[in-house]
């Protein structure tokens, strides 16, 4: 009986350790629907978004996350939504994050096309039509399709604005079609926290799992040692 209990304890320690150690990876995975996530063309994205711009990520606020959630973007040109004479060269865009959460992941230095929606309080947010598709690579083909969809040339931002402009103060030239508005993402605080703590629960799960796994291995070693 003691041998059976000993074997069961070792086995469950190792199984529990593996499950807890790797559970965060499975839990955070962006679940694929049957047939995969739908794909939309640059034209469809442009027609659905309130603002479309090209720019470079020059800053960001992790906000309790290892990933940038609110990006500071230096705008190269506006394709849609901002008229000449009112476009800022720097803007804030909310709603990015981990690809495991089906969000678009951005890093400082990324030069991209951004599809933007207007949030309930006027803030600019990443516009998603499918998983992780609020951004696009800057290629001549995509740029040409966006310009064709808008029907007018891009607008170069004003060079006089010294820093990031509050998005709610920028007049939007294209009204938002309510049928294209997706559920708003949570508004993120502007203050950058001193430390990031959102990932701590996952870290504790991993540490607990590794501890159980190590305990199972130690019990296995003790069992083999007792048989020598």
TrEMBL record:
Residues 30-159 form the NtA domain. The chain crosses the membrane at residues 202-221. It comes from the Bacteria. Pfam families: NtA (PF03146). Residues 1-29 form the signal peptide. InterPro entries: NtA_dom (IPR004850), TIMP-like_OB-fold (IPR008993). Keywords: Membrane, Signal, Transmembrane, Transmembrane helix. SUPFAM superfamilies: TIMP-like (SSF50242). This is NtA domain-containing protein. It comes from Herpetosiphon gulosus.
């Amino acid at each position: 009986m003691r041998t059976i209990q000993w074997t069961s304890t070792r086995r469950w320690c190792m199984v529990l350790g593996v499950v807890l150690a790797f559970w965060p990876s499975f839990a955070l995975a962006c679940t694929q629907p049957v047939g995969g996530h739908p794909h939309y063309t640059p034209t469809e994205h442009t027609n659905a978004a309130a603002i479309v711009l090209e720019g470079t990520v020059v800053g960001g606020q992790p906000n309790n996350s290892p990933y940038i959630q609110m990006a500071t973007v230096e705008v190269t040109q506006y394709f849609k939504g901002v008229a000449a004479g009112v476009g800022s060269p720097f803007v804030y865009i909310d709603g990015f994050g981990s690809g495991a959460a089906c969000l678009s992941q951005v890093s400082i230095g990324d030069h991209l096309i951004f599809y933007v929606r207007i949030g309930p309080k006027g803030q600019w947010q990443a516009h998603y039509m499918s998983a992780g598709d609020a951004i696009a690579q800057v290629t001549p083909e995509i740029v040409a399709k966006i310009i064709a969809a808008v029907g007018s040339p891009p607008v170069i931002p004003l060079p006089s604005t010294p820093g990031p402009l509050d998005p709610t103060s920028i007049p939007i030239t294209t009204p938002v079609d309510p049928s294209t508005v997706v559920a708003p993402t949570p508004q993120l605080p502007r203050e950058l926290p001193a430390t990031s703590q959102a990932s701590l629960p996952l870290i504790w799960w991993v540490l607990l799992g590794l501890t159980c796994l190590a305990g199972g291995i130690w019990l296995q070693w003790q069992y083999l040692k007792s048989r020598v």
